[in-house]
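Possible regression after last week's pipeline update?

I re-ran a chain I had predicted before the update to compare outputs. Posting the input and the new output here so someone can diff against the archived version. Not blocking, just want to make sure nothing changed silently.
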Amino acid sequence: MKNGKKGVSLYPEKELEDLSPDEVVNALKAIGKEAGRRAIAEAKALGLPVTFVENELIVKEFPDGRREIIGKVLPFVKVEKGSVYEVKAR
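New output (post-update):
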């Protein structure tokens, strides 16, 4: 890096631009996981509810431990390259 700062802590001995594509993916996953962990901890410390997905359900957990199911995650649909789909109006 031009500013002299080292890359992600997973690879402290390497500059960010020297990481392989797989190392970049791993670093971004780790950064995202840590950011999520910190956001949840901060929300709980502030007494705010936390919303997350658990077993295909969207759950809101309140500071008192109460849980409310607020929706369901739609199943993943794999789209094949070159496929044509038609969407009809309701």
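Follow-up from reviewer: compared with the archived run. The mean pLDDT is 86. Marking as no regression found.
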